[in-house]
Amino acid sequence: QVELVESGGGLVQAGGSVRLSCAASGRTLTGYRTGWFRQAPGKEREAVASISWSGSSTTYADSVKGRFTISRDNGLNTSYLQMNNLTPEDTAVYYCALGSGVPVTYRFWGQGTQVIVSS
Fold this sequence. Notes:
The protein is mainly beta. It has strands at residues 2-7, 10-13, 18-26, 33-39, 46-51, 58-60, 68-73, 78-83, 92-100, 105-109, 113-118. Strands 2, 4, 5, 6, 9, 10 and 11 form a 7-stranded mixed sheet that branches. A hairpin with a 4-residue loop joins strand 7 and strand 8 (78-83). 30% of the residues are buried.
């Protein structure tokens, strides 16, 4: 069993920054790709960023490139999403997930953390 817990969400003003964390626990976790997703009210869930196990490969949605940075610390079983220059359009519930395979299938999901960006 794998458990993912996101933290770091909250209310922030436009132009501000937030760092989300995703802590994984449970059975031995190696080789997984970590993804961050978000879902805004009334919208479908969208992929925001992902990072390979080694950290050498990252992907970003066009809407967050240059503003968000994904990273991970495998020793802590934790992934991070640094979000800078936030806009109200970034308001959403943010989820992290662990996946594997090509294409990646995300099997384990966290419960989400809310980020609200005020204008």
